[in-house]
Fold these 3 entries.
Entry 1:
Amino acid sequence: MIAIGLGEYIITNDESETIITHALGTCVAVIMHCPHSKLTGMAHIVLANKPKDIHLREVRPAYYVDDFLPKMLLHFKHSAHCRVKDIECTLIGGAVSKRKNDLFKIGEKNVETARSILDSYGVKYDDDETHGRVSRTVSIDISTGKVNIKKQMMII
């Protein structure tokens, strides 16, 4: 089992492995699976947009949707020769805060930014497990591409 944390990702085709990430609240997991090559990737993405401030310290590679998601897609298309129409993509997370006056709307922005990027590349995706007020732990079996989701109520 390969566990990834905030701002981390893994891309592999090792069919003996399962990839997992825990406690997705407002963060969004992007999962891509190519059934032909078994290439599978998961990213635990924290925020929608990378700040333009060039003095900002670099963070983990999959921290921002707009920065990382195009790189992940290009890896699948070019390095692994997966056709866009063959990529099975799932978006999970992007929960809505329990606070009534959520000014930042992080979960909503994460999901909308991911959808926009995937749409621009013509990638079809399943986003049935986005939003809501639950925390999700997500895993994918690389050999089958089966995604498993466990939910629990959010504390905050």
Entry 2:
Amino acid sequence: MRDALAWLHARGLPGWVGYDAVETAANALLFVPFGALLGARSRSVLWPAVVGLALSLAIEFTQAVLLPARFATVSDLAMNALGAFLGALLVALTRGAASGAAGRRARRGA
């Protein structure tokens, strides 16, 4: 990963994009599909974030018990929950845009 970042930095990637930034973003992005799936089955955007946080906590706890070389951070938990929230929010916004477009079409047809 560090070699890939060094290669990208040599080609113009800003210096502030380091390993920590990539790892933080990856933790959020990893849970976006999970949040979208839960959001598609629910009208709430907070519920997927809570479930994402609980799942992340279970994963981090399992890693701590089974993989002592790994360690849990509050940042990982927060980014996973944020990713789940963003996935559910994306579904909610898409759902809202689709229903708004359907309403406009219905009004034009009336």
Entry 3:
Amino acid sequence: MGLEGPAISSVVSRLAEPKINLAAYGGLVFPLTLMIEAPIIMLLAASTALSRDWASYVKLRRFMNRLGAVLTALHIIIAATPLYDLLAHHVIHAPEEIIAPARIGLLITIPWTWAIAYRRFHQGVLIRFGHSLKVGLGTGVRFSADATVLTIGYSVGGVSGIVIAASTLVAGVVTEAVYVHLAVRKTLRDELKPSPSPERPLTTRAMLDFYIPLSLTQVLLLIANPIGSAAMSRMPLALESLAAWPIVGAVNYITRGFGGAYNEVVVALVEEKRATPVLQRFGVGLAVAATALLGVFMIPPVANAIFGDLLGLVDPLPGMVRGSLLILLPMPAIAGVQSYFQGGILHSRRTRGITESVALFLAVVALLLVGGVLWGAVTGLYFALGAFAAGEFLRVGWLWLRSRAARRHLHTRDLTTLPRYSRRSL
């Protein structure tokens, strides 16, 4: 999935008015679309944790469809009414030249949220029953759809970059949702339906108590993206910063994606006896490998080849992206640590600590960005990334604090299930 952003940027940067279309995509369309879909992102974790029997699955599926319908209606209201002008002009204060094309992109991406809700919900079922390979294959299907739309759009010529970018996003997620629908049918029939009902059936209240804090977490987390766009729009090199933002975000997503996916690994496997030592060792290796990958992007010849030659970014964007990577360097390791602490909290089903950590993150980011706007002496891209990095450091610290009880419980469980002679090794 991390390759989707660079692929889109590579094509858009080779079409007419690349800075404007990249800024419209990265500064308005993608942040607003993510903000709208935020409440459904944690359906993956919720489905992984709660889809243990058919009754629970049906209850969650009904909730998923209702939430998808409400958020799709919200997307239409934002994209097709004067509310968009209010957000773009007065809240985000976007450069005037990107506002009209961004609206077109938002209208095209209307199917995005419900497709992602359906996909993530059923991916959780696949992960729950040990079919994560099918999830990975679905990502390949998605990227194939992306590549098809990008190739057609570039070959035809004369199509606006924002139209191609938004159409690629929609084609990818809808195609992957169709694939997941086909891939999950056997698991639903042969594994989920025959699963025994738990002693304590999942109630609506228990489901909402579990999910609402997670949903609020993602809403708060993804509100930070429009806030970042609003701040960069008011700082030096506003258009260039917004144009570079999706590239930097894609690199961050690729290198943090390993640690982000680790969250579902922890949720799915932490219930196993003696799982925590293995998960810890794996998490450390994952963090080292992802950080090393980001380090490769920072090697000057590699950076020049990717951001200049492969993606075809126009000056000064390649230099700005290269300068941003140093700020991103701690992020892959932080993502892995966050996922481990968060997985422990999810296992305990006391998810309030996750919401608190993101609220702290958002508050710190907002305060720092306000300070950056008032200062007005630093390029928006660099200051925004620094603010986000500071917020992530505080967020992981809070997760460490709030996950202590859950981690202590898991550690005690693993000690009591080990043979006596091997307990000291923990």
